[in-house]
Amino acid sequence: MNYKITRILEYNNPEFNYIKLAEELAELSEVVLKMYVKNLENRPPMSKLIEEMGDVLLRMRILAIQEKINVAVNERVEQKANKLMEYIEQGKYKGGV
Fold it and tell me: Please, which residues have CB within 8 angstroms of residue 28's CB and are 6 or more apart in sequence?
């Protein structure tokens, strides 16, 4: 995967990678919202959610590597997961964290 991301970074303008991430985030947001505001017959299929989540994850990886923050981002993900586990253990935010 890193080889592919390196090739993408060589090909893309750095600003383009920011724009593409924003675009993919908007598309994911639209699908997520429709999963809950549309009636069952009009909801997007799960395959659409998978597609948009995959697109966002890839664009996030590309940008994190471009900005040389991938290690810091991974550390932040771990910190956030730990914080959510603390909330669960402390009984905070019942019904979801």
Answer: 52, 53, 55, 56
